[in-house]
Design goal:
Blueprint: E1 2-5, E2 9-12, H1 19-27, H2 41-58, E3 62-67, E4 73-82, E5 91-98, H3 107-122, E6 127-133, H4 137-145, E7 149-155, E8 167-174
Antiparallel strand pairs: 1-2, 2-3, 3-4, 4-5, 6-8, 7-8
Helix pairs in contact: 1-2
């Protein structure tokens, strides 16, 4: 099922053939540099199952990102509910993960803009969050390019104290005023 299209991309539901490139992406040290750990094959399969559960429960979630010109799986982007211990939770975040060969080609920004427009028009939440560890300047730049507003820096409660990825930057998009 196709949820969104841009000039170069299709954001769609997942296919079984996406699983291997997902596993490969989640094991790539470049892609996972700003996460606590790379994912094992089993953890990637569990991540895939979580994505499917979220779609089943809510009707939206993380979409597979495919390039139109050759149908290559580029990564994933979309929405995820979070509920860890912070004052802005529970909430919905826009998140992305892109395979390394496709970085710096504008795909993430293009897809993220489409996701914001889709959420504003079709999804039941009014606020969308995005966050990443402070060293991840590329993801923060996408947040800026898609028009999200910087809220603050916060210590991520899941990251151990003293860890270089503890401090996160938080961005917010108001989709609809109440």
């Amino acid at each position: 099922m196709i949820y969104m299209e841009t000039s170069r991309l299709i954001l769609r539901g997942w296919k079984k053939e996406d699983i291997y490139p997902l596993i490969e992406m989640n094991a790539d040290p470049r892609v996972m540099e700003f996460f606590l750990n790379r994912l094992t094959e089993q953890e990637s399969l569990e991540f895939y199952d979580l994505i499917q559960q979220e779609f089943h429960q809510r009707g939206y979630g993380l979409y597979a990102m495919e390039r139109k010109e050759d149908n290559v799986f580029l990564g994933c982007i979309g929405f995820h509910h979070f509920s860890f211990d912070v004052d802005f939770a529970p909430g919905v975040e826009i998140m992305w993960r892109i395979r390394y060969p496709y970085w710096n080609q504008g795909y993430t920004t293009e897809a993220a803009k489409a996701c914001l427009e889709y959420a504003a028009a079709h999804l039941p939440f009014d606020i969308l969050w995005s966050f990443t560890s402070l060293p991840n300047k590329a993801s923060e730049r996408v947040m800026q390019k898609i028009g999200m507003e910087k809220e603050r820096i916060f210590p991520h409660p899941v990251v151990p104290d003293g860890h270089p990825l503890k401090e996160h930057v938080l961005y917010k998009a108001v989709l609809r005023k109440r």
